[in-house]
Amino acid sequence: MGKNFFIAWIVGFIVWMGGDFGVHGGWLAGEYRALASLYRPETEQMQYMPWMLGAHVIMAGAVAWIYARGQTAAPWMGQGARFGIAAGLLTSAPYLTYYSIQPLPMGLVMSQFVGNLAVMVLVGLATAFVHRNARS
């Protein structure tokens, strides 16, 4: 694992956390507030923030590792978008599982799915950008 791997890990973490903050803390915040009884109170959520940060560190490292192992000499942008779509489908599907066990509105679940997919395309593009010259 070289320098690009660690840079991609850090960049992926930043893009992923920022994107998730935009999707869940911004775009979907009102929908979450309307369903507050299904979630921890906001004041209590903050004490669990280290767990969320740790999860994103782990996931960003996994994404950086998988990308680095499968990267080809193809143009970085297309490769990053394809990778982001694949990673997005993989990480968005659990929202459908949650729907089957938690009483969430389908509209919210679809917004979570699409929002996460968009974030993951950005993560894939950012990861590919970091690695853009590694196999040219």
How are the SSEs ordered, and which strands pair?
Elements lengths: L2 H25 L1 H6 L7 H5 L2 H22 L5 H26 L4 H25 L6
Helix pairs in contact: 1-4, 1-6, 5-6
Description:
The protein is mostly helical. It has one domain. The protein is built from six helices and no strands. The chain has helices at residues 3-27, 29-34, 42-46, 49-70, 76-101, 106-130. Helix 5 (76-101) packs antiparallel against helix 6 (106-130). The longest helix has 26 residues, at 76-101.
Radius of gyration: 16 Å
* Outline: elongated
What does the average pLDDT come to? 95
Main sheet? Answer: none
Unreliably modeled segments? none
How many domains? The number is 1
SSE string: HHHHHH
Instruction: State the end-to-end CA separation.
Output: 18 Å
Question: Helical proportion?
Answer: over 70%
Beta-strand content: under 5%
Number of strands: 0
- Per DSSP, the total helix count is 6
Estimated structural class: mainly alpha
**Which assembly state applies to the chains in this document?**
single chain
